[in-house]
Design a protein that fits this description.
Blueprint: H1 6-54, E1 65-67, E2 81-91, H2 95-98, E3 106-124, E4 127-140, E5 146-157, E6 160-162, E7 165-178, H3 183-192, E8 198-210, E9 216-226, E10 237-249
Antiparallel strand pairs: 1-6, 2-3, 2-10, 3-4, 4-5, 5-7, 6-7, 7-8, 8-9, 9-10
């Protein structure tokens, strides 16, 4: 039977189609945002699993597992210089919240940067004192594009060696200067009536490398701009980003 209102039927069908397409678009937007917030978590889990699977047996002259007091993979003189490139995602929470990588509240705002580091002196027990200087671009859905420069002293350890895998911690402490605040930093400026332009900097990291590629490290770092409880900028802290990068030593 042919409808006596063909134009009305066509209109209803068109409206239903538009509603369907709108629902798909909204679902896609939510899915993309979810992926961007969780991408770093998935990447970290995959990388750690991959490195764990690929690590082999230690050489015949070393225990399978031990804390290194010198570079465990050095062939000759240890390297002193390094370059590091990275990217990461800003979180909404404070330092203590951000360091819980898999449960952090991620934003749609990002950081991409590079740093140069140099070791100065081996202070014993596997610890090495050095320095770092870096630059980054900060951008995202809520943030204007801004630049950041930082420099500080770095204390690192040669780390825990498990077979052919070395897992090493490091901590950088210094100062950070930006061309403009992120949205989160601006909110904290308003709350504390402060200024996030020049703050302290803390980079807490964990690096992974294998004997087969001793000069290359995979690095997780929490990139933290700190007010040191009001010491800098009259604010408690600026921003936190969980980052993942590659470091090359030479």
């Amino acid at each position: 039977m042919v409808s006596s209102h063909p134009h009305q039927y066509f209109g209803d069908k068109t409206i239903r189609t538009l509603f369907f397409l709108t629902a798909i678009a909204n679902h896609g937007k939510r899915l993309i945002r979810s992926l961007s917030m969780r991408g770093l978590q998935v990447a970290l889990a995959a990388v750690i699993l991959g490195i764990s699977v690929s690590s082999g047996l230690a050489d015949d002259n070393s225990p399978f597992i031990y804390f290194a007091t010198q570079d465990p993979f050095a062939d000759g003189l240890p390297t002193k210089n390094d370059v590091y490139v990275f990217g990461g995602v800003f979180t909404r929470g404070a330092f203590g919240d951000a360091i819980n990588v898999f449960d952090a509240d991620y934003t749609d705002n990002y950081i991409v940067g590079a740093a140069y580091g140099r070791d100065f002196v081996d202070i014993g027990a596997g610890f090495v004192l050095g320095g770092v200087a870096g630059a980054a671009i900060r951008f995202g859905e809520d943030d204007d594009t801004t630049g950041e420069l930082w420099a500080g002293a770095r204390l690192r350890h040669h780390g825990l060696v498990v077979g052919d895998l070395a897992i090493a911690p490091a901590l950088t402490a210094g100062f950070s200067d930006v061309t403009g605040p992120t949205e989160i930093e601006r909110e904290r400026e308003i709350v504390h009536d402060g200024d996030a332009s020049f703050l302290g900097f803390v980079g807490a990291e964990l690096s992974f490398r294998v004997r087969q590629a001793p000069n290359v490290e995979l690095v997780y770092q929490l990139h933290h701009r700190s007010g040191a409880d009001g010491t800098f900028g009259d604010i408690t802290e600026g921003s936190n980003a969980n980052t993942l990068g590659i470091r090359y030593r030479f």
